[in-house]
Amino acid sequence: MTRSPLPLFRAGAGRPKRPVAEWGTGGGRARDAWHLSFAHGGPWAGGGVLARSAVPVTLITVITLAATFAPVAVHLSPLLVAAPTSTAAFAGSRFTAGTALAASGAMFVIDRHDGLLHSPLLPLHIAALLVVSVFVVAARSLHDRDLRELTQVRAVAEVAQRVLLRPLPRRLGPLLVACTYRAAAAHALVGGDLYAAARTGRATRFLIGDVRGKGLPAIEDASALLGAFREAAYQHAALPELAAALEVSVRRHLTQLTESDPESGERFITALLVEIPDEAALVQVISCGHPSPLRGRRGKVAALPIPRPAPPLGLAGISPDSYHVDTFAFGPADTLLLYTDGVVEARSTAGIFYPILERASGWPWDCPHSLLRRVNDDVDLHAEGHLEDDLALVAIRRTPAMGSGQGPRPSQPHHPTEVDP
C-alpha cells in the first residue's frame, strides 16, 4: 500500500470532508475561511460595530443593573473585567480597548452607587480592570499579527500547491473530464497522490499515481513525476517510450536525494498511463503497479484486466520493452474511472475495505461530474468521513461526436494486444 485536505477542482465534483485541494467552494476551505473570519471578528464581523457590540454591551448593562439592585455592601464592579476579556475572543485589539474604556466608565458608576467614590477601592478596581485589559489587548494584538502572517503563508502555500497539481480542463478533445483530490493531512491541498493530462496531436494522455510515503517527501516525489510527465508526454510517440522516460526521471530524482535521505532508495510511485485517441474507439493503458481503472460501457461496469503490470516507477525498467500496453474498447458514451488506492483502502468502523466493484454498478456513469460526486459521497458514507490516505479520482467520458483535432495520428501500441469488445 502506498501512502503519502472534499474540495474539488472545477472539473470535478464531490462533497469534501477535509480541507484539501479545492479550487471551488465548500468543504474544508469554507471551514478554514470561517475560522479565519471568526478570528478577525467572528460571525458578527459582517454585521458591523452594532453586531459586535452585542456581547460587551450586554455584559456591561446586565452587571450595571444587577449592581443597582444589589445591596450596597455587595460590590459587583469587578465583574466588569469579563467585558474586555470576552470581547477579545472575537474582536480586534482596538475594539477590545474601547470595550475596556466603556467598562471602566461603568465601574466608576457602580462604585459611586456603592458609596466608594472617596474610597481607595475605586482606583484599585479601575486599575485592576485597566491592567487586565492592557494584557488582553496586547495578547489580541499579537494574535492578530500572527493571524495576518498565517493568512499570507497559507495564500502562498495554496498558490504553490495549485501549481503542483493543476486542475484538469473540463473538456479535452472529444473527452469530458472531471477530477477531484482529497488529501488526508489536515490543512493540505495536495499530498502523495497525483494526476495530470496532456493533449498530444489527436490523442489525450492521462497520468494518475500514488507516491509511497507521506508528508513533504511524498509531495517532492509527486512534483518530480508531474514535471517529467508534462515534458515527456509531448516528446515520445509511443506509450512505452513515455513510461521508460518517466522511470528514468524518477530514478534520477531519487538518486539525487540519496545523499540527504538514505531511505530515498526505498521510495517508489505506482502509476497508470492512459492514452485515448480522438478518432479511434479505444484506450491504451500501461500500469506500473497501480489499481486497474473501471470502465462503464453499455450499462455494465468492470475493472479493465491488466495481466502484465510493470513494477512501480523507481523500480521498473528503463527500456520501452519493459512495459506492456493493454488496449481496450472505449467508444462514444463510455466512461473511464481512474483512482488511487485511497479509495479501495478506505475502511469502515468495522475495518472493512471499500468494495468499489460492488458499489460501482449503482453509480451514474453518464456524467463524470455526477460520478465523482457519488463516489466521494459513497466513500464518506463507508468510512464515516475518516480517510487515512489521500484520494484522487479522474473520470473520463467520450462524447458521442468524435473529435476532429489536427496533428499526427495516435501511436499504435508498442506491444499490440487484442481490443476487447
Automatic annotation (TrEMBL):
GO molecular function: protein serine/threonine phosphatase activity
EC number: 3.1.3.16
Pfam families the UniProt entry points to: SpoIIE (PF07228)
Keywords in alphabetical order: Hydrolase, Membrane, Transmembrane, Transmembrane helix
Alphabetical list of InterPro entries matching this protein: Bact_Sigma-Reg (IPR052016), PPM-type-like_dom_sf (IPR036457), PPM-type_phosphatase-like_dom (IPR001932)
Source organism, top-level taxon: Bacteria
Segments forming domain PPM-type phosphatase: 175-398
Top EC class, one word: hydrolase
Protein name: PP2C family protein-serine/threonine phosphatase
